Amino acid sequence: MSQNINYTWVSEVQEAQNYQSQFGSLLAQGLNAAPVELAAGVKACCQHVHPVSKTMLAPTELKVIQTDFKAFKVAAQTQKEVGVMPMKVAAIATLVANQNNLQVSDQEVVVAAVQKIVEAGTVKEAETQIKTAFREIKAQHQQVFVSNVTTAVKESAMAVGFSKIDVQQPKEGMVRVVATNATGQNLIAEIDSAKQVDIRAELVGFSDGSCGKVMRAFDEEMVKRGVKTQSKVQRATNGIPQMPYAKAMTKARRRSRSFTDEKAVSQEGAVNTITINHK
């Protein structure tokens, strides 16, 4: 017996730490030399915004890449801002409003990107810098999000008895966690972030019927760590590996099995020694 579980479209994961003040300080650095009217415009746009979320949203869920920018641009124009200013106000206000749900890995790059928005002299230049900044922030956020999801997988595997953890990156956009317990059984989890963040996990080496209980315990640990998905499916695989890596691992085990010097009793009652090596 074995089990696998698919987490489709991971939308949230518990933050490793509270990044609100960190990202807020990054914005403050970028706005240090900003014109008074820009700071005032951002404040006016965000006066009714009270971010409270402590969870980390997946890049596909971030408002910063959805509707906030357009909404704040309309608000800035209502304030009678002219020229390039509405673009700048909308961009910075979008980041301020979403600061609780943003994490970055390279602070200096983000500060420089925000500063370039502030310094843009034309609408076209502002549009270019805003797209560049949002793209950079989204990429960094996704990197940290996947890192947090990977940490959740590792900690969950360890919590259910898999003490040895090996983290691999077989290709761009994928992280593989191979966890091993004291008896040599494995939990394999692949985190795919090519389009959205999905997780596939499978147990290998279970033959005593305990795999369902272990997988349910693993899922409970994932929930404790704030991993939320659009859908989640757990099923028995009846001992047939589903993931390519699980198939390769099972095949390798079968080929390497050795019964060297295993004693057996013949039909005549004599004790013989059987040597079987699979190459």
Write the layout of secondary structure elements.
Blueprint: E1 3-14, H1 20-30, H2 36-45, E2 55-57, H3 68-78, H4 85-97, H5 107-119, H6 123-159, E3 164-171, E4 174-180, E5 186-192, E6 198-204, H7 211-224, E7 228-236, H8 244-256, E8 262-265, E9 271-274
Antiparallel strand pairs: 1-2, 1-6, 1-7, 3-4, 4-5, 5-6, 8-9
Helix pairs in contact: 1-5, 2-4, 3-4, 4-6, 5-6, 6-7
What Rg, in angstroms, do the CA atoms define?
26 Å
Proportion of helical residues: 40-55%
Characterize the largest beta sheet: strand count, sense, and whether it forms a barrel.
7 strands, antiparallel
Distance between the termini: 25 Å
* Secondary structure tally: strands: 9
Q: How many distinct helices?
A: 8
Parts with pLDDT < 50 across at least 5 consecutive residues? 258-279
Envelope shape: elongated
Write the element-wise H/E pattern from the N-terminal end onward.
EHHEHHHHEEEEHEHEE
- In total, the number of domains comes to 3
Strand content: 15-25%
Averaging pLDDT over every residue, what do you get? 85
Q: Which class do the helix and strand fractions yield?
A: alpha+beta
Please tag this protein with its features.
3 domains; disordered C terminus; seven-stranded antiparallel beta sheet; Double Stranded RNA Binding Domain; 279 residues; elongated; alpha+beta
Description of the molecule:
This protein is α+β, with helices and mostly antiparallel strands and 279 residues long. The protein has helices at residues 20-30, 36-45, 68-78, 85-97, 107-119, 123-159, 211-224, 244-256; strands at residues 3-14, 55-57, 164-171, 174-180, 186-192, 198-204, 228-236, 262-265, 271-274. The protein folds into 3 domains: 3-12 and 150-251, Double Stranded RNA Binding Domain; 15-146, no CATH class; 252-279, no CATH class. 44% of the residues lie in helices and 22% in strands. The strands form 2 sheets. Strands 1, 2, 3, 4, 5, 6 and 7 form a 7-stranded antiparallel β-sheet that branches. The longest helix is centred in the middle third of the chain and has 37 residues, at 123-159.
